[in-house]
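We store chain and fold; thus.
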Amino acid sequence: MGKRKLICILVVSCFMMLLLNGCNGATDGATETGKTAEGKLTVKIGSWNDIGSGTAEENEFTTLNKGDVIYDTSFGVITIKSVDDHKVVLNVDGAMVEPNSDGTINLRKDPITKITLNAGESIRLASQTMDAGVHMEISFE
C-alpha cells in the first residue's frame, strides 16, 4: 500500500508541475527567450519643463526580445510584450498619452497601456503632466 501511495503522489506532483509551468505556451507571436526578431525600434525622447526643452536623444534597438525595457524613467516604463519580424507590441506602464493634433496634452484621457506597431509605423507619446515631462516618438522598421 505504501508503494502505491508514493506512485500516486509522484504522478499528481508531475501533473501539477506540468499544469503550473507547462501551460505558458501562448505567446501572442512573441519571440522565445534567447531568440531575436529582425527589425529596428527607434525611440526619440525629448524633455521639457517650465524653463524650456532639453536636448532630444535617440535610442535604436536592433536586438528585440520579449521583456526588453526600451524606456524607464519616473514618467513610465515601456517594455516589449511581443515581437516578430513584422510587428512589435509594447506594454506601457505610466501616464503616457498621444498628444492632441495641436500638440497639447489631454490630462483627462485614459493613459495608453498597450501599443501595437506594424513595420513602417510610428507613434507619438507625451507624459500626462503639467509642470515637466517628456515627449517621444517610437517607430518600428
Remarks:
- The chain has a mean pLDDT of 81.
- The longest strand covers residues 41-49.
- Residues 2-21 form the longest helix (20 residues).
- The chain has one helix and nine strands.
